[in-house]
Design a protein that fits this description.
Layout lengths: L8 H4 L15 E11 L2 E13 L2 E14 L2 E15 L2 E11 L2 E10 L2 E5 L4 E4 L18 E4 L4 E4 L1 E12 L2 E12 L2 E7 L5 E7 L5 E6 L1
Antiparallel strand pairs: 1-2, 1-15, 2-3, 3-4, 4-5, 5-6, 6-7, 7-8, 9-10, 11-12, 12-13, 13-14, 14-15
């Protein structure tokens, strides 16, 4: 399970963004919608909802991409995921993905002393406190390994602080700090505001194509 390399892996790491945990009030619900682009072509959307109650973050995401060449569908991607978090530790998740006909049904649960990941055929244990690619919480950049709920892979990552930058958000130029995250051939660029809000992401996909999310 740990060594699988699904097609167009750049799509598989795109996840969620919400305000920094410190800025998210109790008993609140936030919703976001992103348009997803492959190079300059819009290929789909990613919708998600985040709520926080009694210190527990509930994260729900729905993504649907369809890349066409000459009106013929060349790549379809559908993904839904539900995650539960507390104190920067993943408590559990349930993820379903259809990547161009290849299905992944992965779940995970934190237990005493470990975190168990199950794909329906086999399971393996990770450290008790793990983080996924949780772009909504900049603390995830301090991790040396991250869990990809779409595939069940627990991968080593490298993060570099690229310094001060700016990014266009809904037509406005916003000051930001830029980070570069790399993992098993995936190259991500992330931008965060001064108050730790995730602002933008760009990923290099197979063949050198670029994937980006824009708030709609």
């Amino acid at each position: 399970m740990k060594n699988r390399r699904p097609m167009m892996l750049g799509f598989l790491l795109l996840a969620l963004s919400v305000p920094a945990l410190a800025n998210m009030p109790e008993n609140s619900v936030s919703r976001w919608e992103f348009d997803v682009y492959l190079n300059d072509k819009r290929v789909g959307q990613h919708h998600y909802e985040v709520s926080r109650t009694d210190g527990i973050e509930q994260v729900r995401s729905e993504a649907s991409f369809n890349y066409k060449i000459l009106f013929i569908s060349a790549y379809r991607f559908q993904h839904s995921n539900s995650e539960r978090w507390s104190d920067n530790c993943l408590l559990g998740f349930d993820a379903e993905t259809n990547a161009n006909g290849k299905r992944f049904d992965i779940s995970g649960q934190r237990r005493t002393g470990s975190f168990t990941v199950d794909d329906g055929e086999s399971s393996f244990e990770l450290p008790e406190c793990v983080m996924s690619f949780a772009y909504w919480n900049r603390d995830f950049l301090e991790q040396s390994s991250l869990l990809n709920p779409q595939t069940g892979e627990y991968v080593e990552v490298s993060v570099d602080d690229a310094g001060a930058d700016s990014v266009v958000v809904r037509g406005e130029v916003v000051p930001a700090t830029r980070y570069r995250l790399t993992a098993y051939g995936v190259d991500l660029t992330l931008w965060y505001s001064d108050d730790d809000r995730w602002l933008a992401l760009e990923s290099v996909a197979k063949g050198g194509h670029r994937i980006r999310y824009e708030l709609s």
